[in-house]
Amino acid sequence: MKKVLLYCLVLVFFIESLFADSRFFTSPFVFGDNISGKIENRESLSPDEIIEAAMIFSGEAVSGEIMTGVLGKFGDLKETLSSQKYKKNDEAEKAERILLLMYDTLLKTYQEDKTTIGILFEKGEYNCVSSAVLFLALGKSQGLDVRGQKTTEHAFCKLYKNDDGKIDSYIVETTNPYGFNPGTQKKVEETGNYLKYIYVPKINYSGQREVNDLYLCSLIASNLCSLAMKRDDYERAIPLAYGLMLLRDYFEEEDIKEVESLFSGACNNYIFYLQSRNRYEESLDFINELNLRNEIPELDMLKKSLENALENYFYEKIRGKDFDGAGILLKIKNRFISDTLINKMEKEWWIYKIQEDMKPVTENNCPTDTLDERLSYLSELQDRLAAELPAKEINMKITEWKKYIWQKKIINSARNKDFSSALNMIEVACKDVGESSGLVELRGQILRNYEAEAHNKFAVFFNSKNYEDAEKAIQDGLLLYPESKILKKDLELIEKTTKK
């Protein structure tokens, strides 16, 4: 049943997904009976199954004229290989001749972006993946032990040869007609007494690993996905990556990591594409769509990308002063979005909201009524948030604003020469927000100003020999500022003068 399921998944998704709507994800799959049992083993597909799977991963029709034509041409190649000319006992020589036949009859032009099997058979245009798939299929058709190989940037094949129990392996660089066992010199022509040789150097094969037949074919879809992303064609890229995600259970551990990285990258690039064009609402819709697809795991790279996208949208709302809209984003329930991020954004929402609400109090001539109203608002907010959202950062921010308003009220009273009210307000403020260095400094400044005011008043009376009012001015001053050394000296002076 697993074998039938595998082929059905490949078939239905890769034809259907390329025509998916803008939501990128197809409806639940419906499996047909016409392809049951086609794949015997994903580790080792039959030659025709390799070509059919490659067509499917190319997003090309599995039946009809295209598939019939491709399989017909593939059949002609197999028939040629069955002729006496290619019947060699040595497996290495067989493999070398298969590679030469591919270029003699089919492959014409290497182009990195020509990765589909249909283009290879129709126009002879190929890249490393499509040529490796073709060699894999042809090699298997001749009974060779050929296996797909890949690095981070390249695909090729390897021939395994059993010589009396000793296993030898040969790299097959399928992008070159003389790519069998690269790094060795090969005779290509003999004319009279002259021999012509060619040398194909070894390219960088470091980090190579073996992949099963199905995964080698699937690299066609990976290439198509990457090419689509370069064109910002995400309605093609994401369904391709999504289709590979659905097949990851049939791949090896390293292959799965690559598929998950491809899918996460496609989603990340699409979101960046939308948000760079201020299409934030669409990016949010996409995040919600991903959440609905339970078959998509909570990949770390994908979660990070989606969280960044939501956070970007949130701050875009904040910058636009759309606090209601930003608040709605805090209510999102999405398995890709952590509570940690939501809590962080909620704190930020309150900090920016309070800052916006406090703008009137920063104006130079802010009315006292407005200061009182904002101070009352902050106190009520502080009491409410202490129960609903215990957040140290928010409480600190509210306290900072309350100190700012208290200081502004105190300074206004002092400017109006209402020193008594100003000093009383300092006492109330200290009980409300705590005795801060700012309030202590403000108290000292007001007392010095009051001291100077009282002393100057005393001096006017004293110089005009109005000693009674001069003494009263000093006595009144000491009631508010009994520690004043200046006022005490003034009092001593008036007492000495009146005694004389």
Your description of this structure?
- With 500 residues, this protein is of the alpha+beta class.
- The protein contains 19 helices and 8 strands.
- A 4-stranded antiparallel sheet has the order 5-4-3-8. A two-stranded parallel ribbon has the order 1-2.
- Strand 1, helix 5 (117-123) and strand 2 (125-126) form a beta-alpha-beta unit.
- The longest helix is centred in the last third of the chain and has 27 residues, at 437-463.
- It is rod-shaped, with a radius of gyration of 41 Å.
- Mean pLDDT is 85; it is low at 1-22 and 27-40.
- This is Protein SirB1 N-terminal domain-containing protein.
Largest sheet: 4 strands, antiparallel
SS field, number of helical segments? 19
Query: Percent of residues in helical segments?
Result: 55-70%
Which structural class matches the secondary elements? alpha+beta
> What characteristic shape results from the CA principal axes?
rod-shaped
Mean pLDDT: 85
Strand order of the largest sheet: 5-4-3-8
β-sheet strand percentage = 5-15%
Spatial extent as radius of gyration: 41 Å
What low-confidence regions span 5 or more consecutive residues with pLDDT below 50?
1-22, 27-40
Structure summary, number of beta strands: 8
First-last Cα distance: 122 Å
SSE run: HHHHEHEHEEEEEEHHHHHHHHHHHHH
Protein name: Protein SirB1 N-terminal domain-containing protein
Organism: Candidatus Gallitreponema excrementavium
